[in-house]
Amino acid sequence: MSEMITADLVDLDLSADTKEAAARALAERMVAQGRVTDLDGFLADVAAREAQMPTGLDGGIGIPHCRSAHVTAPTLAFGRSAAGVDFGAADGPADLIFLIAAPAGADDAHLTILSSLARQLMNTEFTDALRSAGDAATAAALIRGDEVPSGGEGGGAEGAEADSEGAEGAVSAAQGAAGSSQGAADGAAQGAAGGSDAPGAAGGSEDTAAASAAASADAAAGSTAPAPAGATGTATGTDGSAPAQGATGTDGSAPVPAAGPASGERPFRIVAVTSCPTGIAHTYMAAESLENAGREAGVELVVETQGSAGFTRLDPAVIAAADGVIFAHDVPVRDKDRFAGKPTVDVGVKAGINRPAELIAEVRQKAARGEASAPAHAPSGTPVERAGDSTEGYGTKLRKWLMSGVSYMVPFVAAGGLLIALGFAIGGYKINKAPSVMDHFVWTQADSWGALLFQIGGVAFGFLVPVLAGYIAYGMADRPGLVPGFVGGAISLTINAGFLGGLAAGLLAGGVVMAIQRIEIPAALRGIMPVVVIPLISSAIVGFLMFVVIGKPIASAQKGLTDWLSGLTGTNAILLGALLGLMMCFDLGGPVNKVAYTFATAGIAVATPSDSAMKIMAAVMAAGMVPPLAMALATTVRGKLFTPTERENGKAAWVLGASFISEGAIPFAAADPLRVIPSAMAGGALTGALSMGFGATLRAPHGGIFVVPLIGNPLLYLVAIAAGVCVTTALVVLLKGMRRPSPESAATDPAEQSAAAPKGTEQPVAA
Questions:
Q1: Taking the model in full, what pTM does it have?
Q2: pLDDT digit string (tens) for 353-380?
């Protein structure tokens, strides 16, 4: 981190009382050093990242961070607050605040800073030294590794952290050795064995990473600094002596810890996986915490960090030799089946940080009792249970289950709907009466090609409800839920229960499979459970419930909904269009947006949809096009109100909006939600209402302006979109114009930007 932080980027008397003010104070130092070119634009990117998940960590630490187009070089600024600043940590305000900035697209640099810092922060001597540093130069040197707190494991923290990102580990480990030879060895072992998840990590393989860990640990016994491990996985001290006992070779096995068991007794071996939603700080902090606790407990513990930069799988031999497994994660463990059949502790990532010793003790107790996780072919838990916080309520889980089904259904909707729409466009409105193309197809007749497209689209539409049901069940019970889910969805079509029946069938199938998986099964039968028993029993139960118990009521409800939609006219239709427009623009591709879109696509997911259903589809697509188009127009007519990056995003928003991709407005909403989102909702509501009022219809579920020829009343449809875009643009310009523009955002040409920027910075050329 030698080039990432200097004394000028340190504020030991940070007076900010909010996280926004703290970020601004530290960012201003970056601007002064030419590391950031647009203060407000950069802070908007920091705020957008903070909105995804709080960056406060236990122990009085805040690490706001982001990748930004306004950053010229990877940079770390540090502030120390006497009063503390709330960054959302459970244990209260942070007094140590690290603002991390990386250029857009510089993933490796971003992750290097974050993962390195995260591991250092697990060393209490490091944080204590920062809290007691008397001047900025000393604090910067501590963070860079020029000065290392003395004693124990902390000495090699830098080696551990940088080693997790690749070849930088050798240099940082040497720096760490200045404090303590044993600490450096331990730190390097942690980095190589537990943190080598980035591409290009030491040697490029798990074998070499483990060998590097062992070599560094052994070398510390007889030298001041660890010798980097060679390709063969051996190491010697500076005197050329052979490796000490416990060194590992190229087989990838873990080193014997310093606090191991008595001579001749094999230590208990644990493999662990850590991961968090962002794959950065908590991932590596949990790894560091578990490794430290493992050494204290005298066990061999190797961690696979599944971070944002990807991960390197543990050597299968290491997993096979392990006596237990610890999962500390908030997102699904990738390739989890590798660890099946072993005593397992499965917790959230913060448990790995806060109580690692308890987790190690728990997995040892499970091993002593002979408890083991489910075999690979019958995974325990569900995808939703394996992801996210274990304290999530069933409402949150239910939304995730439903969104799982919808996400897999949408491609079928898009493909089938567009094919059917093209069939009507080519063959005319009576194309649905055409005979099968297997019996009648003339290569030179347009009607035959229209019939072909229509019939292919109809087949694609036939999968909608089964796919919806199947993948709702998949979200609940993983692969075993697919068979009963698809069967239940197909039955829903058979009994005319439609979309609502598919929802019910998916939930039923997932629940039945989850119940079956909780039954204790003799070991002799486990091999046939996923192939025979679970599909047989679950399909029979779901089929019985759909045919005999709930199918008829759901079919009646589906018919009632269809009749109600078909009867919508006048004011009722306009109000429905306005409501759908509000929903489409509320979260721009989020759950509320998806509910409105799913409601619309469900109505046209039949061979002959009603006129009302096609009007709803038209209103939904029109409203969804408004936000990105309006942002594009606003950045064109009043560019001074937007940052250079937003003006660049505005160019792309023209295409995204025209293609019905509402997410094109997300960068603007993230940077200024209080002005952008209400404006977008107002324009979307107007467009939805006008579209319904004009009676515009749409058979295709996607396509934007590219399917305008397939729209009923296309001219009035475009008028509705234009009206909504103008309203949203006017509101955004008005609201943004009421605030005082910053010098950075006001500069619209290269000369103005150069004048507004600190000397030595490179300003992007404005659009």
A1: 0.42
A2: 888 999 999 999 998 888 876 554 444 4
Count helices and strands in the chain by DSSP H and E runs: 30, 12
Structure tokens at 246: 């416990």
- Residues whose CB falls within 8 Å of the CB of residue 401, separated by 6 or more in sequence, listed in order: 384, 472, 475, 476, 506, 507, 510
In sequence order, the β-bridge partners of residue 275 are 329
Q: Where are the beta strands (DSSP E) in 290-358?
A: 300-305, 324-329, 344-347
Strands of 224-294 (E only): list them.
269-275
Of residues 717 and 568, the one with the higher pLDDT is 717
The angle at the Cα of 228, spanning 222 to 232, to the nearest 5 degrees, equals 105
Q: What is the dihedral of CA 461, 465, 467, 469, to 10 degrees?
A: 180
Phi, psi of 420 (to 5 degrees): -65, -45
- Give me 678's structure tokens: 């209400």
What is the pairing mode between strands 61-62 and 94-103? parallel
CA angle 20, 21, 27 (to 5 degrees): 90
Cα separation, 150 vs 156, in Å, equals 10
Alpha-carbon Rg of the chain, whole angstroms? 30
Joined together, the tokens standing for residue 173 give 């480990």
Instruction: Clarify whether 585 is annotated catalytic.
Output: no
- For residue 276, indicate whether it is catalytic: yes
Confidence tier at 216 by pLDDT (50, 70, 90): very low
- Residue 55, classed as helix, strand or coil, is coil
**Element housing 99 (H / E):** strand 94-103
Q: How far apart are CA 247 and CA 261, in angstroms?
A: 15
- Ramachandran angles phi, psi of 587, nearest 5°: -130, 10
Q: Write down the catalytic residue from 110, 276, 329, 585.
A: 276
Instruction: Give the Cα separation of 240 and 235 in Å (integer).
Output: 9
Active-site entry in 65, 110, 282, 702:
65
